[in-house]
Design goal:
This protein is mostly helical and about 120 residues long. Helix content is about 45%, strand content about 10%.
Length: about 120
């Protein structure tokens, strides 16, 4: 992939892996750290950012703080919270209804389980 100029770089938040924690970190500081890493490695003025699960916050932060640096993004999530207030209701309904009935039920169960357990425990 080096021949065509594609580099994949893994990045951990401060305090994860073997790095020291930073109690003052924020989404903005995470994004600025990513930008500094890209610049230090000389990867160019634009780059692709892939967010996976909890790291999707970094992709959203990049949209907010450094959109001019993004060549493209990918958001990957294991489960989507269809009830998230920022998720357009018509889109959530459309996507939810395209799932298999079994998957719809799994999401319902995972949503209501904490409430049901609180009544029993």
């Amino acid at each position: 992939m080096e021949e065509i100029g594609v580099y994949m770089i893994g990045f951990n938040l401060l305090g994860y892996g073997e790095s020291d924690p930073n109690p003052n970190r924020s989404i903005k500081s995470d994004i600025l750290d990513i930008e500094e890493l890209v610049d230090t490695l000389g990867l160019g003025s634009k780059f692709y950012l892939v967010g996976m699960s909890i790291w999707n916050h970094a992709v959203w932060g990049a949209f907010k703080y450094i959109p001019e640096r993004l060549a493209g993004v990918v958001l990957m999530a294991v489960v989507i919270n269809y009830r998230w207030p920022g998720f357009p209701a018509d889109l959530a309904t459309s996507i939810y209804n395209k799932q298999q009935v079994e998957d719809q039920w799994a999401l319902r169960i995972s949503y209501y389980t904490p409430s049901i357990l609180s009544l029993v425990v």
